[in-house]
Structure formats: C-alpha cells, structure tokens
Amino acid sequence: MLEWLQTFPGARVAVLTDLPEEHYHLELMPVVRGAAGRALLKRKLAAWPHAQGLHTAFLLETIKTSRLENRFLFAGLFSPPLIHCLHALQAAALSLQGIYTQAILLPYCLPANAQRLSDCICVHAEHTTLCLSYFKHQRLCLRRRLSMPTQGMQDVASVIPALTQLHRELFSQFGLSESASLPVFCIIAEIQQAERLTLPAPFQYQPLTEAALIAAVGQGSLPTGLRAVEWVAMHAILADQVLPNLAPEASLLPEKLKRLQRNIHVAGVGLALLLALLAGFNALATQQLNTQAGLVKAQLDEPEAMPFAGGLRAEQLPAIHALTRTMQAISASARLPDQALHDLQPILSGLRDWQLIRLEWQAEPPESADPDAHQTQLLKMTFQQRETSQHTRAVLEWQQLMQRLNQLPSVKQLQTENSSQQSTTNGRQGSTDPLAMLGLQPMLTLTWAAVQQEGW
C-alpha cells in the first residue's frame, strides 16, 4: 500500500481503524485550569498502560460531586505496523490528516435527529462481533464488543442481555435513571430484520438500515468491500470536521504547516482584493473631486455666471465702503485699551507703598465726522497709601511714579487730583508736592495719545 500511496506525492492521508486492539477508559480528574491542568492530564495519560504512541484524551463533561471533576475518555490503539507506516509516510513526504477509530466516529454517522440526542446507544454487528456504544452529547463514553455464534443480528438472545448489562454500567457510572427512556439505534442490513428484534423497557428501539445511512451522505451505492458504517465515517473525515485524533503531534505537524500556509495565502489574496477595492474607491473619489474643481474653475473664469458679482451695481459701492469703515472703527474701538494697559502694567506692578484701588477708562469720539479722525482715551487711576508704608519712602516712590508716567511717549496729558486741592499740568508736567498728597487718595488722569484706527 505504501508504494501505491507514493504515486500521489503531496497527498493527504487519513487512517480509519476498527481493531480489537482499541482500548477506551474513563478517567475522573479534579478541575485544574491552565498549564497545571494540561500537565496533570499528560501525566495521567502517560501512566495509562495502553498509551503507547497512538492515543488521545478528550473531555466528556464536568460533574459536581463533593468537588468539581472533569470526566475524560482515554482512547488508545496498539498497532506496530501502523506506527511503522507513519514513519514511511513522513519519509515519502506524505502529510497525515489523522488516525480515527470507527467507534469514535460512529455518532457522526447517525442521522441528524440522533446526533441531537443527549443520550443514546448504538448497536451494530461486524461479522460475528456485536458492538454496543453509548454516546453522550455526540461523544463516545462506553464501548463493548461481544462475540456471537452467528453473523449479523440474527441471534436476538445475545443482544438483550448485553444491553441490560450496559444499562447497569451506565446507571452506576453516569447516574442514568432506571426508568428513563433510552433510545437504541440498531444498524441492520435490511428492514426485515427489524421485525426480529424487540427490546424491553426502558430501551426505545429505533431500527436504522444501511441504505438510510448511505442515503444520508448523498451516495446511492456502497463501494465493494466496504461496510455502510465505514463508508459514512469516511465522509465525516472528508468533511474536515474537528474530530478526535489518535495521531502523534509530530506526525500531524506537516499537515498543520500546510494548513497554516493555505490560510496565509487566502488571507493574502483577501488583503490584495481589499486593497484593490480601496484603490478603486479612491480613484472614483479623486475623479469626482476633479470634476467639481473643474466646475468651480469654470465659474471663476466667467464672472457674469456668478450671481453675486453679476448683481453688484456701481451705486452700491459707496454704501458698502461706508459699512466696511464702520466695522473697522468698531473693531478698533474694542481693542483701544489694550495698548494702554500693556504700557502701564510694568510701571504699576512694582509699587510697594501705593495700591491702585480704582481704574476707569473711556474713549471720546473724534471731533470731526471724518472716518480717519482719531479717538482720545482717558484713564483715571485712584491710589491709596498702604498702612505699612513709610512716609519718606512713600513720597519718593510717588515721585518716581510721576516721572515714569511722564516718560511714556503715548501720554499726552497728566493731571493729579486729591480731596484738598487740584493741580493741572499741561505739556507733560505733573504735580509732585508731597505734603499735599500724603495721607489722601490721589487720582491720576491720563490723556492717551491719538490712536490710528486699524483697517482691513
């Protein structure tokens, strides 16, 4: 057979077995998560006597007794010729899809209504061997093989005791109710055999012919040399389902690498198609933007086509100009105090003996109606001597304040007032009489130089 397989280089090989050397064992383990749980499962599986290269373990269910426990099924196969065949397949560059047993794949061969059942028993005959399998949620839990004196299910007397014994084991290990109905699917060659078999309660007898199994996979005829159960199991393998596998990890590695390579190729093709689609959308959007830009350019090249430019008359220009200058004047007036406050900030921030208690600002309209006329600003500042100040130092600081204000180029006039007297100095002169202003609240009035209105 190896020579025949070597005529198909790069082929993928799947092995289906149904041998007496198959062993199945139920194992209860405490629920352990993560790497510790995987390590515990490997130790338990390595200690199983039938774990000799071709073996696996899969979780059946989680049950709660005094603690949470996982119920695993250990499956093992001892076949030295098959192990030798795996090495020959690797040497011939043939990838191995997996090693499957007929017993594990049997629930995938049943009709769809049987696969949805939570508990069921399947009975079928293999020559002079009677096979009984119990499935829970489409997972093999128990398997029994019994020898019969005749071929097929003609010996009804050997079927009922075997089912009764199996039901007792299920009652003790899985806690099934003795009175609960339990479906039993019997795979028979012809429908006439169904009349020969009757089962007592709680078994619910459901015959299943081999022709119905073959029809379920869409095949009209059974190949020569194969049984119906084997033919249906092959189609379950070819369907690329995730099935329990007994092959070693090292033998499955080439197939996993090929599958990964195929996935990368498919992802690359999908990404290339996506990029091409995005490029097409970008090209279409660019074309639409160019079309809109051409329309706008055509309108700009033909002023008469624009509604605003075409509707503007010469007599409207003076009104628009006046409105523009008015808006400029309003904008400039709103920004008038900025420069004055900016100039006063470094002078007033250094005072130690005098405190500014009031600041008033006003802008006087220009004397003429000319839009280019200048506006005048008045700043009134009221000071108060601090209680902790010294007399001599306060007089000296006030003189320095007056000098610094007089030195500002933007100050046009400076006036000093208090409660007892008023002195006016024109031409950048201020009152510096210390006896007249100490102990009072002097007020300085600054007339700011003309400010040119900002235009657009």
How would you describe what is shown here?
The chain has 456 residues and is of the alpha+beta class. Among the domains are: 2-21 and 79-256, no CATH class; 336-451, Alpha-Beta Plaits (2-Layer Sandwich), CATH 3.30.70. Helices cover 39% and strands 27% of the residues. The chain has 14 helices and 15 strands. The chain has helices spanning 2-5, 34-47, 80-91, 102-105, 112-115, 159-173, 210-216, 228-238, 249-301, 307-311, 317-334, 336-348, 391-406, 434-437; strands at 12-17, 22-30, 54-64, 68-77, 95-101, 119-126, 129-136, 139-147, 182-188, 203-209, 354-364, 375-385, 411-417, 422-425, 443-451. The strands form 4 sheets. The protein has a 5-stranded mixed beta sheet with strand order 8-7-6-9-10. The longest helix has 53 residues, at 249-301. Residues 413-435 are annotated as: Disordered. The chain crosses the membrane at residues 264-285. Keywords: Membrane, Transmembrane, Transmembrane helix. Residues 413-432 have a biased composition (Polar residues).
